[in-house]
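User: Predict structure, ligand magnesium ion.
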Amino acid sequence: MIDALQKYLKENNYSQFHLKTAMFDMDGVLFDSMKNHSRCWHEAMKHFGFNLPREEAYMHEGRTGAGTINIVSLRERGHEATEEEIEKIYAYKSQLFNACPKAERMPGANELLQQVKASGIIPMLVTGSGQKTLLERLHRNFPGIFLPELMVTAFDVQYGKPNPEPYLMGLQKAYQYLHPDASHSTLHASHSTPHASDSTLHAPHSTLHASHPTLHDLAPHHRLAPNCSIVVENAPLGVQAAVAAGVFTIAVNTGPLPDSALLDEGANLLFPSMQALSDAWQTLLHDIQTVKV
Ligand code: MG
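Assistant: Predicted complex:
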């Protein structure tokens, strides 16, 4: 683990970590919900005459609904889907998903979160999901862990993963929380008003094409420095977003993809499960707090 930590510090020109927060993705990290998502994506696309294999759905995890639908539409028809098609397909997928049995807590997730909090590190949530039921379940399943002002969801972001925006916003929210007296006057956190229960549908198509947005409202001095945090992610696009935000990224491979799908996106460490990460937490935390280059 020390090697991976030192490599990150060197590559990002830091001499050490100043760990204050740990940012957690939700689907496939805190909840074992990806099996349901991938099956519903596959079935919904099939219903409308498209082919999206279950395993491929894991590769698209974190993308907006419109983004995923358009990738398949472009591949199979040579053009993007219409707004109406996107709404129909996404509504059907959501209907199937809502009829699924409730996803369980990921084994080891609660144990890890309790340890993180007891260590004095602030747990944060950074998810592309905006499903109200899932967010309510978060509070039921992990009571007292996540403060609302320390959560980034689909309702906060404009671009979403794989853009670094959600994690940069996480660093911004952490800064505001830790520096309550700092002036917020120059910050313009964008609070979009979603039209549907899951606003990932309506996020702009730019997630498909755009690289990095101009985050003019996220001036670096209003954000926690990336070496004050770590990210726990399970999806290739989520790892891509976290790495692009400059944060040490721990991948947990809780799905069917090969480890290389996460390591190739730049994950700094990889664990086979949340339980394995939880078991390693005390050692990892000690290493993070003592490593120097
Ligand atoms: Mg995930």
